[in-house]
Amino acid sequence: MRIIRQWHSAERREIWSGTEGGVIKAWPWDVIAKSLSLTPEEKYMASCLVENAYIDLRNYVTVGTMFSLPTTDVKHMLADHCRAKVWSLTSMTFALWDARTRELLKVFGMDGQVESARLEPLVMPEQFIEEEIKVKPTKKEKNQGSVTFLKKSWNALIGAGGAVRRVATKGTFVEDNRRTETVAQAMDGAIWSGCTDGSIIMWDGNGNWLKEFSYHNSSVQCIKALGGKVWVGYASGTVQVMDVEGNPLGGWTGHSCPVIQMAIGGSYIFTLAHHGGIRGWPLTSPGPLDDILRTELAKRELSYTRVENIKMLVGTWNVAQEKASPESLWSWLGTASSDVGLVVVGLQEVEMGAGVLAMAAAKESVGLEGSANGQWWIDNIGKALDEGISFHRVGSRQLAGLLIAAWARTDLKPHIGDVDAAAVPCGFGRAIGNKGGVGLKMRVYDRRICFVNNHFAAHLENVTRRNADFDHIYRTMNFNKSHGSAASDTSVQLHKAVNANGNQPDEDRPELAEADMVVFLGDFNYRLYGITYDEARDMVSQRSFDWLRERDQLRAEMKAGNVFQGMREGFIRFPPTYKFQRHQPGLAGYDSGEKKRIPAWCDRIVYRDSRSETIRECSLVCPVVAAITSYEACMDVTDSDHKPVNCTFSVDLARVNELIRRQEYGKIIESNEKLHCLLQESHHVPDTIISTNNIILENEETVVLRITNNCGSKKSAFEILCEGQSTSKQDGTKTDFIARASFGLPHWLEV
Fold first, then answer.
1. Partners of 195 in the beta sheet?
2. Is residue 59 part of a domain?
3. Pfam families, from UniProt (predicted)?
4. N or C: which end of the chain has fewer CB within 10 A?
């Protein structure tokens, strides 16, 4: 329920509430106030009275009016005290009310267009998709020939696309990326609404669209205004400052997760993050005060820097639609996980087939994911890791046959947060998940680490397509929640430069590029080139891996800078992991069938950390430094035509000791003379003259109230509020003073 307190006329005060289904109610404040002062025995009867005392404002919507009250849930309400109006907002619709008469004045959309038709109720997407797609390949269909099966598969995928489009047109999913998330009023009276696509819309007090602008792709979560400034908090953790015209003044990374609320107290604006953290920022920021604090804190960096070390196990396996035995899972993960704190597993081909892909594509389009097979793997890997006692699952994501999941050891779990997931399909026109990537992003000791499980295009000749698959995943993978960087600069914001258009210069950088460490794992499908099947088998039997590595497509492409740019891989000392005959142990198990696929290192793990050519040591500037301690394949596992691969990392993470940093911050504030001067100046109120004479209005006449700001360099903001009113009688006495709080000015008074 969204509730807003609002006072009406001199005789009536009310609280307005917005609830599910677009219902708006007005509650008499006097009834509520009386119930607060009752004894516990009397409160039950009073609560019944209050419960039935409301007025349903839908009754005040005139029959036959051109406006229809939205039937979707009320998300936000705003009181415009100066104009005596109330705004009620759904995700995509605005309603404007007269607070005095309770009249519905206007209903309009996010584009400013007046709504005249009632919104249609939502459809249930999952049920609709199930009815639209009923395609499942059978063994009989496969036996009819590959051409017929491929044709049926293609038809199934086209059918899935049609089902998705029909669901989208029947529901509201087309506009799902643009909803109203917050609303606030600036000091100049303009109403600001923030949207999930990062755009901000300005309205006048009568609900007329003024202008729209956008400086971030991240969702707007909250807006706060004071004087000539407006602060905007984003889902990325970014805080941005603008003037009342919407021009950007500066911005900084406030938190590592969404900023969900802001409040102003004293000379600070405080931001509340999704994980519960609260930080305060000077109202004058960005400015000279920030520059001094940043410089002074940098000099003391060593005193509040701590380096943590964790061990990570990363594993990848193309399971070829099979299910592993407990022994295979233990061989792959159980022994290696004994001394690690974090385990991340990526699987490919958990399930395939036209029906599976079609259903997965349809579900993805309406925000659904996962399957029974995927859950089986998660449950059984959890058993191998002693989940619930030694390890706890912290996140997972499935896209058709791709699955990624992560588990953290009990003592490390409290230091892991902000776990988000993402998926990028690469198959059939970048729409189907038979190829693609699924990722997890998490904050470990306040450092962002991303893991991406991939399955690239198959076949020896498709090197360019594999490179393109990586490029597409790297550039387009966007995680569900936060899109910002870890807030290592916690006490002083590092405001970013703003160009002439008001856009952040690095706004178009891929989200994976912002992470402190990225690990790519999966069936990359790069093969051995310039070699025959028999030559490869001979070299494998002789363990001549150096000779084979020279013919590895991935190594050649990375060296040429065509793929995995800036990343590195551990030294390969294990045999090629593809292709094997199932349940055939040893190196004799390589495929000897009709196709005789040349053995290859398809299953790989590559990574990058924070190191650069000039900085190699772990510090706040280079916060994550990783080293591979083992990189191997489990050649004794025979459940699939691929061998599982695992890689263990030793990772150093530099973090800020917040307690010590706050202490250093306090010492700087106390000892720096220049800061003292700036802080005193920020508290200074310009010399202002206000006429204090009583204003007596007996006739319809104009009286001038002059407010003068004698400061020639700074603006002064003010509000005129009516605290209450009383009436003078002819005998000189006055009626009782009736408080009007912040309702607005009386009908007969205009300023």
1. 180
2. yes
3. Beta-prop_IP5PC_F, Exo_endo_phos2, Ig-like_IP5PC_F
4. C
Query: Does 43 score more than 90 pLDDT?
Result: no
- What gap in Å lies between CA 703 and CA 750, rounded to an integer? 11
How would you label 574-601 residue by residue, b for 16+ Cβ within 10 Å and e otherwise? Answer: ebbbbbbeeeeeeeebbbeeeeebbbbb
**3-class secondary structure, 657:** coil
Distance CA 663, CA 304 (A): 9
Query: What is the helix, strand, coil percentage profile of the chain, to 5?
Result: 25, 30, 45
**Is the backbone peptide bond immediately before 286 cis, with ω within 30 degrees of 0?**
yes
Amino acid at 14: E
Q: Collapse the DSSP code of 140 into the 3-class scheme (helix H, G, I; strand E, B; otherwise coil) and give the result.
A: helix
End-to-end Cα distance, the chain: 35
∠ CA 142-402-309, rounded to 5°: 155
Answer yes or no: are the C-beta atoms of 209 and 199 closer than 8 Å. no
The domain total for the chain is 2
- The pLDDT of residue 638 is 93
- Environment class of 431 (CB within 10 Å of its CB; exposed 0-12, middle 13-18, buried 19+): middle
Distance CA 71, CA 119 (A): 7
CA–CA distance, 709 with 732 (Å, rounded to integer): 36
Q: Are 376 and 458 in contact (CB under 8 A)?
A: no
Residues 344, 321 share a domain: yes
| Residue 497 pLDDT exceeds 60 | no
Q: Does the residue 651 lie in any domain?
A: yes
pLDDT band at 690, cuts 50/70/90? Answer: low
Task: Judge if the upstream peptide bond of residue 579 is cis by omega within 30 degrees of 0.
Answer: yes
What is residue 247's three-state secondary structure? coil
Same domain, 381 and 294: no
Distance from C-alpha of 652 to C-alpha of 55, rounded to nearest angstrom: 61
Which domain CATH number covers 458? 3.60.10.10
- Report how far residue 251's alpha carbon sits from residue 746's, in angstroms, rounded to the nearest whole number: 40
CB 224 within 8 A of CB 184: yes
Residues 322 and 266 in one domain: no
Return d(Cα 343, Cα 382) in angstroms, integer: 10
pLDDT (0 to 100) of residue 30 = 63
CATH of the domain at 113: 2.130.10.10
Three-state SS letters, 717-751: CCCCCCCEECCECCCCCECCCEECCCCCCCCCCCC
Q: Tell me, what's the pLDDT at 128?
A: 39
CA distance 74 to 194: 16
pLDDT tens per residue across span 69-92:
666 788 888 888 777 788 988 888
Q: Where are the alpha helices (DSSP H) in 437-550?
A: 463-476, 533-541, 545-549
CA of residue 602 relative to chain centroid, distance: 33
Contact 400, 351 (CB under 8 A): yes
Q: Report how far residue 378's alpha carbon sits from residue 396's, in angstroms, rounded to the nearest whole number.
A: 8
Lowest mean pLDDT segment, chosen from 480-494, 678-692, 705-719: 480-494
CA 246 – CA 436 distance, rounded (Å): 40
Tell me the β-bridge partners of 387. 391
Number of H helices, E strands in the chain: 17, 35
pLDDT for res 606: 98
Confidence at residue 37, expressed as pLDDT on a 0 to 100 scale: 59
Q: What is the pLDDT of residues 588-597, one digit of tens each?
A: 889 888 888 9
Q: Is the CB of residue 310 less than 8 Å from the CB of residue 412?
A: yes
The pTM score is: 0.69
* Residue 650: strand pairing partners: 311, 627
| Of 24-28, 30-34, 493-497, 607-611, minimum mean pLDDT range | 493-497
Residue range(s) defining the domain that contains residue 213: 2-117+178-299
Question: What six digits make up the tokens of 295?
Answer: 């410089």
